Amino acid sequence: MAERVNKIAIIGAGAVGATIAYATMIRGVAKQLALYDINRAKVDAEVLDLNHGLQFVPMATLEGSDDLGVCAGADVVVITAGAKQKQGQTRMELAGANVELCRSLVPQLLKVAPEALLLVVTNPVDVLTYVVQKLSGLPTRRVFGSGTVLDSSRFRFLIARHLNVAVQNVHAFIAGEHGDSELPLWSSATVGAMPLMQWSAPGHSRLTDEDRTRIFDNVRNAAYQIIRGKGATNYAIGLATAQILEAVLYDENRVLPVSSRLDGYLGISDVCMSVPSIVNRTGVETVLEVPLNDTEREGLRRSADTIRQAIRTLGF
């Protein structure tokens, strides 16, 4: 039998879309990459630049166009197009313009790639994941957002740096909104096999209450800091999205805090938000009911209320 050729289509050739394509190409995630943007000169230039590096990465084919037909037959469509977050602007403030974009985009995508999973990266990602799922009518497992995969990576990096351990040995999640109402799941965090709240090792720091407050504040405000300095976040979200795509196309059953629609999750329903979930070729196979303390449980519900209010304001 012929080997299945995985195809990823990326909507939007801006800083985020182009970096996702670059990260995906370097990691050899798919054999076919398609990049779509309404700016033909921009998408042509990005694809040309990427193709010039094919000698140095796993073999793939890359194409780009201002015609959505370039996405035909995609296994996964990554949506990055939309208004860019400006300095001082919250993700929620982007909602109106980007929802209108989805109204026109989603029906066209379903025509050219009816079997694709839809991975939403455009902010506010939780609101737009809900909107895309509603507009598409697809099963909830097939429409999900990048959620707090990036936030959790920032969280683990800061914990690891404070404790002077390898970030790969820190297991901790940010849950809820990818935004200001997100929350850290301290109670389930571990370093190696040791619960973080019990962490103690000679020559390595412990976490005080002040340390935890500082670390979470840095996680929550990271995007604002990066936008002030260079105008956009792109490298880490590119790598985070590449990992999500690997989990899907390699059928990895990887646990990732992606954003998907929750119904009856710890009393939370009819909202998209991030909790640890098993991700594989089918999309979000299942969400995991991780142990939460009372503070975390209440924080998750407040975050859900924040997202739901934004969704209702937009008429969904």
From TrEMBL:
Q: What is its main location?
A: cytoplasm
* EC number, UniProt record: 1.1.1.27
Entry-linked Gene3D superfamilies: Lactate dehydrogenase/glycoside hydrolase, family 4, C-terminal, NAD(P)-binding Rossmann-like Domain
> Which reactions fall under this protein's catalytic activity?
(S)-lactate + NAD(+) = pyruvate + NADH + H(+)
Q: Which GO terms describe its cellular component?
A: cytoplasm
Provide the alphabetized UniProt keywords.
Allosteric enzyme, Cytoplasm, NAD, Oxidoreductase, Phosphoprotein
The molecule here is called: L-lactate dehydrogenase
- Origin species: Archangium gephyra
